[in-house]
Design brief:
Length: about 500
């Protein structure tokens, strides 16, 4: 199987949210659990009336049939019109196209997500190239800066330093019990914007939308978390409209104890197979936290490991054209933050696979910070890692989108479905990422889903979230007439 191009990955994202038709033998060979959905694809809910139309997981808007409206007690709460989901998508697009400001487009889509989740994902996957820059980078950065004004309804869990000792209780506030993936940030280094404190919640919310759109993870299995320990952003501290804790960041042991308790509480409630992704932590904490927990929990740091895996994969793909080895090149990085250091570290590990001693590999890595080369020496680089101009798969789009697409098609499905804990980020570029990870996991005995599916790709597709509307009509049937005969005195 050839490696996936950018366009192919985008197509796979769309497949993840499309109706699927798989051989019964594939589905029957593994444990498949559809909570709340019967064998005919119908959904049973005890909710009725107004609660239905205010629940984004259940609401279909004017796509409810007349039978559903009568049975659910919502007839009259909706206009007397019946629309297909495709027509609803067109209505959303017509409204979307009237917005010229990216933040206005973001708010429109987030409002849709709050109102009708399946329609939101159908819209998102209808043109993921158009909508990804709106629901995540770069627009999400602007949304985070304006998060206090754009906040409408809770889409994640805010845990503060004052809740230390009670995090397990706080997790009970979240309505879903079967959580497979958590994205957590403390808001200290949001994209390139710095410390945004509690406003950083936009990052976990947006990232988990990509788990569903690109990785097919049901949104009900995703939990965004903001750890609010304060902020050192004086503008926010002086802003009466700021929605977070208004004091300087808590650091040191008290901070570490909060992280420890959070990790333990999450795994106690959701199990050791729950993926915990750290996102946008400052350098001072990111590497330290990763090293502390990477071998104890199902966790990874997206900025360090995720970016590195996609960047190095791009370099490995380029080597097939240049017909040489990593150790034949000198790498210069524009920037020396988490992403650059993560990529550099992974390049050194990859060169070690070629038999290059660590000291020699290090000599091939050069860092440029805001004041120039970290070591003053003239070099002739053959690879320049300018992250915003680096196109690892040959498809022209911002590299952040390659990370968001390829990582969440590959890594997230591998972890959430197969419970892969130890992740190998140096992988061949011959097969899609998630198949590489899964194959590696079974060979190393670190996967926990057995029996091992014969067709892993088909199995993944059988488990992905679908944005198709569910049916809420009852399962009508009757008894024999004799059995229903009314007895009289």
């Amino acid at each position: 199987m050839n490696s996936l191009s950018g366009k192919s990955v985008l197509a796979l994202c769309r497949v993840f949210s499309s109706p699927l038709s798989l051989p019964p033998a594939i589905v029957g060979a593994v444990r498949v659990c559809h909570s709340g959905v019967n064998s005919k694809g119908k959904v049973f809910t005890k909710k009725r009336g107004y609660d239905i139309t205010r629940n984004p997981d259940l609401n279909k808007g004017m796509a409810f049939t007349m039978e559903e409206r009568l049975q659910l007690g919502i007839h009259g709460l909706l206009p007397p019109c019946f629309l297909s989901q495709d027509v609803q998508v067109l209505r959303v697009m017509k409204s979307y196209e009237t917005r010229s400001n990216p933040l206005d487009k973001y708010i429109l889509l987030m409002t849709l997500q709050d109102r009708n989740e399946k329609l939101f994902y159908r819209v998102l996957t209808s043109d993921i190239e158009e909508f990804m820059p709106i629901v995540y980078t770069p627009t999400v950065g602007l949304a985070c800066q304006q998060y206090g004004l754009a906040f409408r309804r809770p889409r994640g869990l805010f845990i503060t330093i004052h809740d230390k000792g009670h995090i397990a209780t706080m997790l009970n506030s979240w309505p879903e019990e079967d959580i497979k993936a958590i994205v957590v940030t403390d808001g200290e280094r949001i994209l390139g914007l710095g410390d945004l404190g509690s406003y950083g919640m936009g990052i976990p919310v947006g990232k988990l939308a990509l788990y569903t759109a690109c990785g097919g993870v049901p949104p009900q299995q995703c939990l965004p978390v903001l750890l609010d320990v304060g902020t050192d952003n004086r503008t926010l501290l002086d802003d009466p409209l700021y929605i977070g804790l208004k004091h300087k960041r808590v650091r040191g042991k008290e901070y570490d104890d909060l992280i420890d308790e959070f990790m333990q509480a999450v795994t106690d409630k959701y199990g050791m197979n729950c993926l915990i992704q750290f996102e946008d932590f400052a350098n001072s904490n990111a590497f330290r936290i990763l090293n502390k927990y990477r071998n104890r929990y199902c966790t990874f740091n997206d900025d360090i490991q995720g970016t590195a895996s996609v960047a190095v994969a791009g370099v490995l793909a380029a080597l097939k054209i240049t017909k040489n080895k990593l150790s034949d090149h000198k790498f210069v990085f524009q920037g020396a933050g988490e992403a650059a250091l993560g990529i550099a570290h992974l390049l050194i590990m990859a060169m070690a696979k070629e038999g290059v001693p660590h000291a020699e590999a290090v000599k091939r890595i050069w860092m440029v910070d805001s004041k120039g080369l970290i070591v003053k020496v003239t070099i002739k680089p053959t690879v320049v890692c300018l992250f915003w101009h680096f196109f690892p798969t040959g498809y022209i789009c911002p590299p952040t989108q390659h990370l968001n697409i390829q990582m969440y098609v590959g890594l997230i499905k591998s972890v959430t479905l197969y419970s892969v804990h130890s992740l190998c980020f140096i992988l061949s570029s011959q097969t899609p990422l998630f198949l590489q990870i899964v194959d590696h996991a079974y060979k190393q005995g670190i996967a926990s889903w057995y029996p091992e599916p014969k067709d892993k790709e088909a199995f993944v597709l059988s488990q992905v979230y679908s944005s198709d509307y569910d049916s809420f009509t009852l399962d009508p049937y009757s008894w024999p007439k004799d059995a229903m005969k009314v007895q009289n005195v």
